[in-house]
Structures are given as structure tokens and as C-alpha cells.
Write a structure and sequence with these properties.
Layout (H helix, E strand, L loop, with lengths): L1 H15 L5 E2 L1 H4 L15 E8 L8 H17 L10 E3 L5 E3 L17 E6 L10 H16 L3 E9 L11 H7 L10
Parallel strand pairs: 1-4, 2-5, 2-6, 3-5
Antiparallel strand pairs: 3-4
């Protein structure tokens, strides 16, 4: 009987491979939005890669704490209604749910409309994110197309292309220029 249980566990593990591990707002203990947000109609034409430029994280507890810290900062200090990004990527290789892709982000001023905001947690000016985080981001982009959050031929941009910022950091910016859908123009 135990070999059947082992077989079921192995088959379940195989079935889960290739799926993007998304940590929900409830799982990272997000605050509810403080007010209304403008809506957008997916699928969106652009994905914008940013970094949070603060502390990084490498495990579930630290990444959830960084998510709460960022949300508190953006809601309290920057007066956003919620965390500004749609998704964030932890050094643990997990994707963290931010605001809904059907709500306009708060990370690129007038360029928020039509943009799916994806931020890597940490500062990637000099050092690239972990391979697990990079893989998660690429899988997330594929997932977003499959879920009709992004158009199939979306443009991939760095945050600095749509805002006056150094984000996503030089090391990460250099890497994403090699990814599929990279665009020099917004």
C-alpha cells in the first residue's frame, strides 16, 4: 500500500512542475487597499521589470516580511491605495501577488496604464537576482500570457525606460535585455 501512496505523491509533484508558485495576498498577510484604484482592461501590451531597491529576501518568512514592509511604505509614505506592483519576485524563487492586473499600477507615473508591473525584491544594481528568482519571473511572464493578463506579443521593458529611475538596477537590466519580448521602445 505504501508504494501506491509514493506513486501518488510523485505524480502530484510532476503535475505541479511548470506551474508558477504564487504566494497570495492572504498568505503574505497583505493589508486591504485603503481606497479605490483605476481599472485597466487586460490583456496588457507591456510588462515592466523593476526592483524594490531595498533589502532582499531568500526565504518565505523574510520575503513575506519584505512584502508587508513595502506595502506599508507605499501606502503610508507614498499615499498609494495599495502596493504599487502587480507581482513581486522573491529571492526564494516565489512570485508574490500584489495588486490585481486589472487595476492600474503605481510605479511608472503616466506609463502605468497598460503595464504589468513586476518587481524583484531587493537591489540589483551590482548583483543579479538568484537563478530561482530569474526563472520564476520568466515563468510568470509565460503564465501572464496564458492567463490573458499580457498580450502574446507584449513588450518587455525595464522600469528605467518608463520612469526617471535606475530601476531595475544595472545587473538586472543587462539580463532582461536578453529575454524574449525585450523592446528598446515603450
Amino acid at each position: 500500500m505504501t508504494w501506491i501512496a509514493l506513486l501518488v505523491v510523485c505524480l502530484a509533484a510532476i503535475a505541479v512542475q511548470g506551474e508558477v508558485p504564487i504566494v497570495t495576498r492572504a498568505e503574505w498577510n497583505a493589508r486591504p487597499p485603503s481606497g479605490p484604484m483605476d481599472s485597466m482592461e487586460p490583456p496588457l501590451p507591456r510588462a515592466v521589470i523593476a526592483h524594490t531597491a531595498g533589502g532582499g529576501c531568500a526565504d518565505d518568512v523574510a520575503c513575506s516580511q519584505q512584502m508587508r514592509n513595502l506595502q506599508n511604505f507605499q501606502m503610508s509614505r507614498q499615499k498609494f491605495s495599495d502596493i504599487g506592483y502587480h507581482y513581486l519576485i522573491g529571492g526564494n524563487g516565489k512570485v508574490y501577488e500584489g495588486r490585481s492586473p486589472s487595476q492600474r499600477g503605481a510605479f511608472a507615473g503616466p506609463n502605468n496604464d497598460g503595464s504589468l508591473g513586476i518587481a524583484f525584491i531587493g537591489n540589483f544594481e551590482e548583483q543579479a537576482p538568484s537563478q530561482e528568482a530569474l526563472n520564476a519571473a520568466r515563468e510568470l511572464l509565460e503564465h501572464a500570457v496564458k492567463q490573458a493578463q499580457l498580450v502574446e506579443n507584449f513588450k518587455l521593458l525595464g522600469h528605467r525606460q518608463v520612469s526617471a529611475t535606475r530601476s531595475p538596477g544595472e545587473a538586472l537590466y543587462t539580463l532582461i535585455q536578453q529575454w524574449p519580448n525585450w523592446s528598446e521602445q515603450k
